[in-house]
From TrEMBL:
InterPro entries: AAA+_ATPase (IPR003593), ABC_transporter-like_ATP-bd (IPR003439), ABC_transporter-like_CS (IPR017871), P-loop_NTPase (IPR027417), PstB-like (IPR005670). Keywords: ATP-binding, Nucleotide-binding, Phosphate transport, Transport. SMART domains: AAA. Residues 24-266 form the ABC transporter domain. SUPFAM superfamilies: P-loop containing nucleoside triphosphate hydrolases. The keyword Nucleotide-binding applies. GO terms for molecular function: ATP binding. Pfam families: ABC_tran. Belongs to the ABC transporter superfamily. This is Phosphate import ATP-binding protein PstB.
């Protein structure tokens, strides 16, 4: 069921880039929900302008780790994070960090498309407005157009910008959410199973988009689909029971993993 096609592996192998600057770094990251520990001393580098896929069986801590990267876990009362996480070398858990600003730099796209109950235009304009990034109407129009262009949605919505975002198809809504994330010029985009609610055609469109976006952004994606990890990512990190089992170039992880748990997972023996 999780077997990879040769084409998917070849595709991953073609895309391993030479440049390896570290954008975000997690060291000894532990996460607790009340008494229960969900992550154990995770050390993981997120490389700039690459797509890093987080994989592993359900409940292994992928989403928990993803949420650490923009402090979304702060919104969960019982959640406690220890260890260090940096963005461009700066500690994102430093009390002096403005979390709203951090989340503009490290944006997030969720599993289920969640446009605001507003127009397509307003969905994209909301972030730049609250961050004061575009004040004049013409500037805002330009930001909205550019963001929708980058999300590959402009041609489909340019004549209906003032219609509700919730009236779009699921795949279009997810690209609208990506446009909304892009509109505040993030450096990193976190995606938590962004295609799980989409049909295969909409999934393919979002996967193509992810590949285009990595030119300008660093992307971390949680996925249950091994094929998707192989198609879109350059690096893959395998989690199991709250531990990072191994991390490496996606082609190596799928053809020659070091850990038996990775081997078992990618060949569909568990998970
Ligand atoms: N808000 C929460 N409160 C309490 N426990 C939580 C919470 N969120 C996650 N957990 C627990 O932390 C562990 C890791 O969960 P997490 O959602 O990060 O795993 P995951 O690998 O993303 O799973 P899935 O693939 O099913 O989404 C699980 O045992 C889960 O039950």
């Amino acid at each position: 069921m999780n077997m990879l096609t040769d084409a998917a592996i070849e595709n991953a192998m073609d895309k391993t880039p030479a440049h390896e600057a570290v954008k975000m770094q997690g060291s000894k990251v532990r996460v607790f929900y009340g008494e229960k520990q969900a992550l154990f001393d995770v050390d993981l580098d997120i490389r700039e302008n690459q797509v890093t896929a987080l994989i592993g069986p359900s409940g292994c801590g992928k989403s928990t780790f993803l949420r650490c990267l923009n402090r979304m876990n702060d919104t969960i009362d019982i959640c406690r994070v220890t260890g260090d996480i940096t963005l461009d070398g700066e500690d994102i858990y430093d009390p002096r960090i403005d979390v709203v600003e951090l989340r503009a730099r490290v944006g997030m796209v969720f599993q289920k498309p969640n446009p605001f109950p507003k127009s397509i235009y307003e969905n994209v304009a909301y972030g730049p407005r609250i961050h004061g990034l575009a004040n004049a109407k013409s500037d805002m129009d330009a930001v909205v157009e550019r963001s929708l262009q980058k999300a590959g949605l402009w041609s489909e919505v340019k004549d209906r910008l003032h219609e509700p975002g919730t009236g779009l198809s699921g795949g279009q809504q997810q690209r609208l959410c990506i446009a909304r994330a892009i509109a505040v010029s993030p450096e990193v985009i976190l995606m938590d199973e962004p295609c799980s609610a989409l049909d295969p055609i909409a999934t393919a469109r979002v996967e193509e988009l992810i590949d285009e976006l990595r030119e300008n952004y660093t992307i971390v994606i949680v996925t249950h689909s091994m094929q998707q990890a192989a198609r879109v990512s350059q690096r893959t990190a395998m989690f199991h029971l709250g531990n990072l089992v191994e991390e490496g170039p996606t082609d190596k992880m799928f053809t020659n993993p070091e850990d038996k748990r990775t081997q078992d997972y990618i060949t569909g023996r568990f998970g």
